[in-house]
Amino acid sequence: MARSRLSWRDDRPAAARMLLRCLSGLLTVSLLIQFFIAGMSSTTNPDWWEYHRIWVSIFQWLVLPLPIVAWFCGKPRGGRILFAVLPILQIALQYFLVHRALDGRLPTGVGLHAVNAALMLMVATLLTLGWHDGEGIVKDRKI
User: How far apart are the first and last CA of the chain?
Assistant: First the structure.
């Protein structure tokens, strides 16, 4: 069989979709690690709180390229970009909730912080699975 002369440059939307899935997969794994660290901090040893802060400062930057990469995935762009912007908004909400809780102005902020983190994990997982395009293992399924 002849070897295909197509490269990633010839199919940029496919390469962008793969990059979007890889970045959201890294975000999903990072969030799971963050859940573990938060659990260790709250139930076992409060000294883990510093690891929680350090880890967030590392993985929070994974959300910034998501909408840009989503745009390069080709048409239709609207829903995909909107879905890829959600983690940026959720990271901002995380900071708002936890800082208001620590200041004492929003006592339920820590609980809402945890709920928002769970929702962010769901969004990152759905991006990884290609739900925004109707591709992947969720194709032809109604969620």
Answer: 41
